[in-house]
């Protein structure tokens, strides 16, 4: 990943870098890899995320159909 520093403005470049890392999911993955997660916990987390995505898709579909 590459970020350009313009006019020696390192603070702005750092903000851009952090935003890019967050969009890529690096922070989330670091948090998940910090501690061991049991396979059952991983399945439960992934299932909850899938349910959340499905509900969001249903809400958007219902809103679009109005």
Can you characterise this structure?
With 66 residues, the protein is mainly α. The chain has one domain. The chain is 77% helix and 0% strand. The radius of gyration is 18 Å and the shape is flat. The mean pLDDT is 94. Pfam families: Ribosomal_S21 (PF01165).
Descriptive labels:
mainly alpha, 77% helix, 3 helices, 66 residues, 0% strand
Summary?
The chain has 66 residues and is mainly α. It has one domain (10-65). The protein has three helices and no strands.
Helix-strand blueprint:
Elements: H1 10-24, H2 26-34, H3 39-65
GO cellular component, one term: ribosome
Keywords: Ribonucleoprotein, Ribosomal protein
Biased composition (Basic and acidic residues): 36-48
Helix content: over 70%
Strand content: under 5%
> How would you spell out the order of helices and strands?
HHH
Number of helices: 3
Name the poorly predicted regions.
none
Number of strands: 0
* Total tally of structural domains: 1
GO biological process, one term: translation
Protein name: Small ribosomal subunit protein bS21
Family: Belongs to the bacterial ribosomal protein bS21 family.
GO molecular function, one term: structural constituent of ribosome
């Amino acid at each position: 990943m590459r970020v350009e520093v313009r006019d020696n403005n390192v603070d702005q470049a750092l903000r851009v870098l952090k935003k890019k890392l967050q969009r890529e999911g690096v922070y989330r993955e670091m948090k998940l890899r910090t501690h061991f997660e049991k396979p059952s916990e991983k399945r439960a987390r992934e299932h909850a995320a899938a349910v959340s995505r499905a509900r969001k898709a249903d809400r958007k579909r219902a809103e679009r159909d109005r």
